[in-house]
Write a structure and sequence with these properties.
It is built from 5 helices and 5 strands; from the N terminus they run βαβαβαβαβα. It is an alpha/beta fold. The chain has one domain: Response regulator (Rossmann fold, 3-Layer(aba) Sandwich), CATH 3.40.50. It has a 5-stranded parallel sheet, sandwiched between helices. α4 links the parallel β4 and β5. The longest helix has 13 residues. The mean pLDDT is about 95.
């Protein structure tokens, strides 16, 4: 399966970590966004994106708002979404799952965890 990732995080360093992890997992097709608003712009401009990896805490449009916007848009609602965030309390995880993220990772993470979560999402 050919996955094209949109990596969304306001931290350039964290985007690099995620992208390098994806490269190590032999994925090579991705675009980046610095916040949810930029992510929505990229999604409307590029309909080949099929997997979103997003942080939660970002300026302008948060990751949670991004998830809700994607799920509320008929053209985008089938995208796979993985939230990668420092927010690890149970209530936050439940809120994200209720917003219909496909999976959730608490930072820091290893490439192996990233691979497992992607595989869980894609192989459902």
């Amino acid at each position: 399966m050919n996955l094209k990732f949109l990596v969304v995080d306001d931290s350039v360093t964290m985007r690099r970590i995620v992208i390098n992890s994806l490269k190590n997992l032999s994925y090579d097709n991705f675009v980046e966004a610095g916040d949810g608003r930029e992510a929505l712009d990229k999604l409307s401009a590029d309909n080949s994106i099929n997997f979103v990896i997003t942080d939660w805490n970002m300026p302008n449009v948060s990751g949670l708002e991004l998830v809700k916007s994607i799920r509320g848009d008929e053209k985008l609602s089938k995208l796979w979404i993985l939230m990668v965030t420092t927010r690890g309390v149970k209530e936050d995880i439940i809120e994200a799952l209720n917003a219909r993220v496909n999976n959730y990772i608490v930072k820091p993470f290893t490439p192996q965890i990233l691979k497992e979560k992607i595989d869980q999402i894609v192989n459902v």
